[in-house]
Amino acid sequence: MNLPNFLTVIRLILIPFCGYALYNDHFLQAGVIFVMACITDYADGKIARKYNMVTNFGKLADPAADKLLLLTALFILAVKKLIPMFIPVTVLIKETIMGIGGLILLNKKYVVSANIYGKIATFFFNTSVAVIIILKPASFITNTLLVTSVLLMFVALAKYSHQYFKIKRDLIEKQAKEDPLVR
Asked: Is the separation of the CB atoms in 45 and 94 below 8 Å?
């Protein structure tokens, strides 16, 4: 197992500890664990790209760990009424849509890479969650970060959707050229 994949596994292991600490009102511990997990997310990607250590495991496990970490924290914050429930529900719906689209493309041997809007939205979500965990009560700043995160998430979803439908169209055109009966 290479270092980026090891960091991803560490992040997966940290998720239940973060969730447990957050649910039991150990906000400082939850904040430290959440930030540590976010740092492993940043580090594993940088190392994998810089040292050509990208693996199929990493391509699947890294984004899954990111989503699980964020959704765990968001749902617990919503259950504790520190953020509105529509935020984690919206993120879950978006991730489900993207996951289904990604599986369809993966079945066709395509992997859609993260776009800049998705990365920025993730940064905003992680920052706002860390601030809420550490400072507890939501404030104008954290609410602004959360709203910005949701808006960026929708921009990212629109970009991913455009990319998805372009790939699907290209696949249909390619198949039509290879098999005239498809037309």
From this structure: no
